[in-house]
Amino acid sequence: MDVQLTFTDPIVTEAFELLQNQPNPFKDRTMIGFYLPGDSEVQLILRDETGRLLKSIKTERKAGYNTIEIEEDALISGFIYYQLSTKFGTKAKKMLKLK
Q1: What sign for the dihedral angle of Cα 75, 80, 81, 87?
Q2: pLDDT tens digit string along 25-73?
Q3: Rounded to an integer, what distance in angstroms lies between the CA atom of residue 18 and that of residue 65?
Q4: Confidence tier at 12 by pLDDT (50, 70, 90)
Q5: Do the Cβ atoms of 52 and 26 come closer than 8 Å?
Q6: Widest distance between CA atoms in the chain
Q7: Backbone angles phi, psi at 3, to 5 degrees
Q8: Residues 86, 61: Cα–Cα separation, whole Å
Q9: Model's pTM, two decimal places?
């Protein structure tokens, strides 16, 4: 029985992609990862379940994989909705903060 291995290049995304925060749920801190197809200004907006603005972060990021770390004791416990806006589009997800 012959075994053949074929290696290919890793899959690289060419599209804007927002990833689920890690860890989720979280207590003190979490990381939000995303891919950018090119350099862009990004704005991360965190809202509570009623839509009230909790935090807004605006920064410049390079093409490829990026992260934004959230260390915020002032954030409420419960579901938090996060939205990332870039020149490549806007995407949103939700996370859970524990007490």
Answers
A1: positive
A2: 999 899 999 999 999 999 999 999 999 999 999 999 999 999 999 987 7
A3: 10
A4: low
A5: no
A6: 63
A7: -115, 130
A8: 10
A9: 0.82
Nearest to 46, CA basis, from 11, 22, 74, 17: 74
- DSSP 8-state secondary structure symbol assigned to residue 63: S
Integer-rounded Cα radius of gyration of the chain: 17
- The length of the chain in residues reads 99
Q: What is the CATH number of domain 18-97?
A: 2.60.40.2550
| DSSP one-letter code for 74 | T
Place of tokens 């935090």: 55
**Domain limits of the chain?**
18-97
- Token reading at 86: 């870039």
Q: How far is CA 26 from CA 30, 73, 78, in A?
A: 6, 11, 10
Report how far residue 17's alpha carbon sits from residue 35's, in angstroms, rounded to the nearest whole number: 5
Specify the residue for token string 């009623």.
50
